[in-house]
Design a protein that fits this description.
Blueprint (H helix, E strand, L loop, with lengths): L1 H14 L20 H5 L9 H4 L11 E10 L6 H9 L3 H19 L6 E4 L4 H7 L3 H13 L7 E3 L11 H8 L3 E3 L9 E9 L3 H13 L5 E10 L4
Parallel strand pairs: 1-6, 2-5, 5-6
Antiparallel strand pairs: 3-4
Helix pairs in contact: 4-5, 5-7, 8-9
This protein binds zinc ion (ZN).
Zinc ion (ZN) binds next to helix 2.
C-alpha cells in the first residue's frame, strides 16, 4: 500500500498534480504540502518534552541549550513518515521548503518571535548533494526562514563523506559521523542564538556532531538548539 501511495505521489508530481504525501488525495487550492485533514491529525511532538529528551546532545557544548523543537513524532511505520521520505528522496526540494514554511508558521503562532537569531542547516557533502541535487535541511531551513524572518547561515560545512545513519545504533551513529562537520567563519556566530536545522532527529548523533564542531571551532554563541520536522519516539 505504501509503495502504491509513493508511486502515485511521484507520478502525480511528474504530471503536475499535487497530492498529499500522507493520504494520497489531490491537494486543493490553498492546501500546501499536506491536506488539511492530515495536517489537523499530524501527531505533533509535545514541545515540553523536547529539551530533556535531547539534553545529552548539549552536554559538552560551548553554550547553553537553546530552542529545541520538532514538528511531529516520527514513526517509520506511520503514513506520516511519507512526509519525510518524499521531501528527502523523491527530488522534492519544493516539498521540503513548503513543510519548513508550514512548521515555521506554527512556531510563529506559538512564540510570536522565536528566540533564534540564525538557522544553520545540517550540511551535506558535495558528492551526495550532486547526486540528490539538493540538501533537504537547507530547503527546510529556507522555508522556516520565509515564515519566521530568521536568516539562514552557511557556517556548517561537510568535511568528509560518511555512510548512512539508517539502521545504526546510537554509538555507531556517533562514531560514523565524528569529524565530518566543520565550521566556517565561527566569529560570525558570536553572541547569537543558533538553531541547527535537520529533517529528523533520531538518536541526536548528527546534531551532537554539529554542536561539537561549533564548540571546537571557537564559536561563542549565546545558545545552541535545533529545529527538525520529525523526532523519533524511541531514541535507541
Ligand atoms: Zn492527506
Amino acid at each position: 500500500m505504501n509503495i502504491i501511495r509513493l508511486l502515485s505521489g511521484f507520478m502525480a508530481d511528474l504530471t503536475g498534480v499535487r497530492t498529499c504525501p500522507v493520504c494520497g488525495r489531490e491537494l486543493l487550492d490553498g492546501e500546501e504540502a499536506i491536506c488539511i485533514g492530515c495536517l489537523s491529525t499530524l501527531p505533533r511532538t509535545a514541545t515540553q518534552h523536547m529539551p530533556g529528551r535531547y539534553a545529552d546532545i548539549f552536554a559538552n557544548a560551548v553554550a547553553p541549550q537553546g530552542l529545541t523543537e520538532a514538528w511531529f513524532d516520527y514513526d517509520p511505520e506511520s503514513p506520516y513518515a511519507q512526509i519525510i521520505r518524499r521531501a528527502k528522496y523523491y527530488d522534492s526540494p519544493r516539498l521540503a521548503r513548503t513543510l519548513g514554511r508550514a512548521f515555521g508558521r506554527e512556531l510563529t503562532h506559538r512564540y510570536g518571535t522565536l528566540p533564534v537569531d540564525v538557522l544553520l542547516p545540517v550540511p551535506m557533502h558535495w558528492i551526495k548533494r550532486m547526486r540528490r541535487s539538493y540538501n533537504q535541511s537547507e530547503e527546510i531551513a529556507g522555508g522556516i526562514s520565509e515564515t519566521t524572518g530568521i536568516p539562514v547561515g552557511d557556517n556548517l560545512t561537510a568535511l568528509h563523506r560518511h555512510s548512512t545513519q539508517t539502521r545504526k545504533n546510537n554509538e555507531a551513529r556517533r562514531a560514523n559521523i565524528k569529524g565530518t562537520v566543520g565550521v566556517d567563519a565561527p566569529e560570525e556566530l558570536q553572541g547569537l542564538r543558533i538553531a541547527i536545522v535537520d529533517d529528523i532527529v533520531t538518536t541526536g548523533a548528527t546534531i551532537a556532531e554539529c554542536v561539537a564542531a561549533l564548540s571546537l571551532s571557537g564559536a561563542r554563541p549565546q545558545t545552541i538548539g535545533f529545529i527538525t520536522l520529525g523526532a523519533t519516539y524511541q531514541r535507541r
